[in-house]
């Protein structure tokens, strides 16, 4: 369910709520223009605000100014808002991050093991070319499956 910031409708107090959570409080005479309710705002809440500002048709710079005026310097960078606005413009209105990290290996260890057993004198570069991966990948995977080079042959490592 999409959560959208909602301004107080009963009076012109300037309060803004997301899911009944107070986000913005009007200032008093002796405080800064806006008093923060908590020192931090969650990434999820910020993304909701980004989408809200995007749907209002604001520019990334205007959205940045609006959010910083409420939550203070350092709460968000304009560059981050530009990135999210680009994502929204491309049609992806999802508020989730894409998966990150190392891509899954395309190397089949069973195939590597079979190749090494069929050709025990094979060089790492040759195995890499045959399997379409880097020599470093082959070297790491051979170590992981317990194969070591002894007397110019790939053999299973023996603890000793």
TrEMBL record:
Q: Where is the Mos1 transposase HTH domain?
A: 44-92
The record's annotation in InterPro entries points to: Mos1_HTH, Transposase-MT_Hybrid, UPF0547
Which BP terms in the Gene Ontology apply to this protein? DNA double-strand break processing; DNA integration; double-strand break repair via nonhomologous end joining; mitotic DNA integrity checkpoint signaling; replication fork processing
Please provide, alphabetically and separated by semicolons, the GO molecular function terms listed in this UniProt record: DNA topoisomerase binding; double-stranded DNA binding; histone H3K36 methyltransferase activity; histone H3K4 methyltransferase activity; single-stranded DNA binding; single-stranded DNA endodeoxyribonuclease activity
Which Pfam families does the UniProt entry name for this protein? HTH_48, UPF0547
Which GO CC annotations does the UniProt entry carry?
A: condensed chromosome; nucleus; site of double-strand break
Ranges for the UPF0547 domain? 3-18
Q: Which PANTHER family match?
A: HISTONE-LYSINE N-METHYLTRANSFERASE SETMAR (PTHR46060:SF2), MARINER MOS1 TRANSPOSASE-LIKE PROTEIN (PTHR46060)
Protein name, per record: Mos1 transposase HTH domain-containing protein
- Organism, by scientific name, is Rousettus aegyptiacus (Egyptian fruit bat)
């Amino acid at each position: 369910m999409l959560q959208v910031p909602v301004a107080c409708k009963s009076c012109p107090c300037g309060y803004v709520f997301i899911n009944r959570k107070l986000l913005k409080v009007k200032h008093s005479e002796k405080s800064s223009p806006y008093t923060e309710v908590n020192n931090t705002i969650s990434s999820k809440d910020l993304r909701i605000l980004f989408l809200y500002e995007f749907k209002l048709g604001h520019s990334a710079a205007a959205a940045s100014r609006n959010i910083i005026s409420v939550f203070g310097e350092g709460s968000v960078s304009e560059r981050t808002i530009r990135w999210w606005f680009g994502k929204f413009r491309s049609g992806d209105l999802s508020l989730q991050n894409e998966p990150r990290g190392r891509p899954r290996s395309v190397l089949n260890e069973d195939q590597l093991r079979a190749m090494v057993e069929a050709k025990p004198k094979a060089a790492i570069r040759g195995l890499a070319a045959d399997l379409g991966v880097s020599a470093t990948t082959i070297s790491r995977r051979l170590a992981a499956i317990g194969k070591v080079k002894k007397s110019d042959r790939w053999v299973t490592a023996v603890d000793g």
